[in-house]
Write a structure and sequence with these properties.
Length: 463
C-alpha cells in the first residue's frame, strides 16, 4: 500500500508535477521508495512493510519491486514524466526497485548511487576536502514550443555554476534580452484622406487612431539598416490584413492574418508606411508630424518577456547552482536566436575592458563650485601620445564605441570589421561611403566626431 500524501500538484490547484526525484533506500531488512518534486516536497512513498510483507520477506527483491510500483503509480497519476533516481543502501531490493522504475515509463535523467563508503576500521573518517570542479559550463534547451505565430517560448538551462554566479548571469541576460536586441517595426504612416490622427473615414469601421494601433502590432522580420518604404493600397469592401502590405524584399511578415482595418464600402484606402530597425521602445513625440504623416510608437523588442530562476544543490561547502532561463518572443526571432544575440551583445560590451589600457582618473576642484569632477577619457592626451609614438599603439586602444556614435552607425562599422580608431583611420571617406547601409549623413557625423574629439581629418581618397 502507498501512504497518502496531499497532492501538491493536483488538478484542483491547477498544478501538476512533471519532474521529480525518486529516492530508493534499500537495507537488508526493508526497502523504502520516496518520490519528491525538485524542491524536496514529498509526493508519495511506500515501503515493503506497508505493502504487507513481514519478517525476512521485507528485504526480498519482490517486496522492493512491489513498493516501488505502488509509490510511482501515485506519482504518475499526478503527472510525473521525468525523474532523477537516488539509490542508497546495500540491500537486495535496490536492483529490483530500479527495474520497476524503468518499466513505469518515466524518463530518467540520471541514476546516482549515494551509498556512503565505509572508512578503514574504527578510525574516524578523514575530513573532506573541497575539490574544485573542472567541468565546463554546458547549456541546453529543455523545452521549446510555438503557442502562435506571434508567441514563441523556450526554456534553457546552464550548469554547473558556483554559488552566486547564476544570479549574476541571469540578471545580465534578462536585461540584454529585453533591452539590447534589435527589432523591425512600422514607425510612421501617411494617408491623404486623413485630416488628423483622431478622425474617421467614411466606409471604414475603425478610426485612424485604431488603424495606427493595429499597424503598431504588426510583427516584421528583417536584417535591414536604415529606413525602408512600404505601402497598403486596397479597394473595399474588404477585410484588410497584414497580407495586403506591399513591403520590400528584405522585410518578411510574421503573421499575415493580423487585422488592420475593415472596409465596408467601395472606397480606396492608400497608406504609405515607414519601416525601421532599432532597439527598445521609442515613444512618439507630439512635434514629430512631418508632411501629413503620423508617427507610431516604435516597439523594437523581439523579446516579450524573460525570466530566470535558480536551483541550488550540493552540500554547504560544495554548493552549486543551475540557472534556468525562460524566454518569450514575438515570432521575429526564436528564443534560441534571441539568447545567442543577447550573449553576443554582452560580449561586445565587455571586450573593451579586456584590451583597452587603464585610464588615469584625475580629480580636480572647480573654483566656483564646491564639488569634484572626474575626467575618464583624456582624448587630447592620447592624441599627444600618438604624435610622439609612430607605432599607433594609442589608436589600437580607442574603440569606436567610445566615440558617441549612434547605434546604427556603430553596427555598420562593426560589420565591416572596424573596431578601433586605427581601423577607422585606415579607410578614406570614399571607403566609408561603400559600406553597406551607411548614409552620407552618417559619414558626415563620423567626420565631425573625429575632428571634435581627436582633431583628426579623414582624407577623401587613399593616396
Amino acid at each position: 500500500m502507498t501512504k497518502a500524501i496531499p497532492r501538491i500538484g493536483s488538478r484542483k490547484n491547477g498544478r501538476r508535477i512533471q519532474k521529480g526525484v525518486i529516492h530508493v533506500q534499500a537495507s537488508f531488512n526493508n526497502t523504502i521508495v520516496t518520490v519528491t518534486d525538485v524542491i524536496g516536497r514529498v509526493v508519495s512513498w511506500s515501503s515493503a512493510g506497508t505493502c504487507g510483507f513481514r519478517g525476512t520477506r521485507r528485504g526480498t527483491p519482490f517486496a522492493a519491486q512491489t513498493a516501488a510500483g505502488n509509490a510511482i503509480r501515485t506519482a504518475v497519476d499526478q503527472g510525473l514524466q521525468r525523474a532523477e533516481v537516488m539509490i542508497k543502501g546495500p540491500g537486495l531490493g535496490r536492483d529490483a526497485a530500479l527495474r520497476a522504475i524503468r518499466r513505469s515509463g518515466i524518463l530518467l535523467s540520471f541514476v546516482r548511487d549515494v551509498t556512503p563508503m565505509p572508512h578503514n576500521g574504527c578510525r574516524p573518517p578523514k575530513k573532506r576536502q573541497v575539490a574544485v570542479s573542472t567541468r565546463t559550463l554546458q547549456w541546453k534547451c529543455v523545452e521549446s514550443r510555438t503557442d502562435s505565430k506571434r508567441l514563441y517560448y523556450g526554456r534553457f538551462v546552464l550548469s554547473p555554476l558556483m554559488k552566486g554566479q547564476a544570479d549574476t548571469i541571469g540578471i545580465a541576460m534578462r536585461k540584454a534580452l529585453l533591452g539590447e536586441i534589435e527589432g523591425t517595426c512600422i514607425t510612421r504612416a501617411k494617408s491623404e484622406k486623413v485630416s488628423h490622427e483622431y478622425s474617421t473615414i467614411v466606409g471604414i469601421e475603425e478610426s485612424v487612431h485604431e488603424i495606427l494601433m493595429n499597424l503598431k502590432e504588426i510583427v516584421l522580420r528583417s536584417n535591414l539598416y536604415g529606413t525602408r518604404d512600404a505601402s497598403i493600397c486596397v479597394r473595399g469592401p474588404k477585410y484588410v490584413t497584414a497580407q495586403d502590405i506591399i513591403s520590400p524584399p528584405s522585410v518578411e511578415l510574421v503573421d499575415t492574418t493580423q487585422h488592420i482595418a475593415n472596409l465596408t464600402e467601395p472606397i480606396h484606402l492608400c497608406i504609405e508606411l515607414k519601416i525601421e530597425r532599432d532597439r527598445g521602445y521609442r515613444m512618439k513625440s507630439p512635434n514629430n508630424y512631418q508632411d501629413g504623416s503620423y508617427p507610431i510608437d516604435a516597439v523594437s523588442m523581439p523579446v516579450r518577456n524573460a525570466n530566470h530562476s535558480i536551483h541550488s544543490y550540493g552540500s554547504e561547502n560544495e554548493k552549486q547552482e543551475i540557472l534556468f532561463l525562460e524566454i518569450w518572443t514575438n515570432g521575429s526571432l526564436t528564443p534560441k536566436e534571441a539568447l545567442r544575440e543577447a550573449s553576443r551583445t554582452l560580449i561586445d560590451l565587455f571586450i573593451p575592458f579586456l584590451d583597452a589600457e587603464e585610464e588615469d582618473i584625475h580629480f580636480y576642484l572647480e573654483d566656483n563650485q564646491n564639488r569634484f569632477t572626474v575626467s575618464f577619457f583624456t582624448f587630447h592626451d592620447r592624441l599627444a601620445n600618438l604624435r610622439k609614438n609612430k607605432k599607433g599603439i594609442a589608436l589600437k586602444c580607442i574603440f569606436i564605441d567610445q566615440s558617441e556614435l549612434p547605434s546604427r552607425t556603430y553596427n555598420c562599422l562593426k560589420r565591416s570589421n572596424i573596431h578601433t580608431l586605427l581601423d577607422l583611420l585606415n579607410n578614406s571617406q570614399e571607403d566609408l561611403m561603400r559600406i553597406e547601409h551607411l548614409r552620407i549623413e552618417d559619414v558626415k557625423q563620423i567626420l565631425d566626431i573625429l575632428q571634435k574629439h581627436f582633431a583628426i581629418y579623414l582624407p577623401k581618397n587613399k593616396f
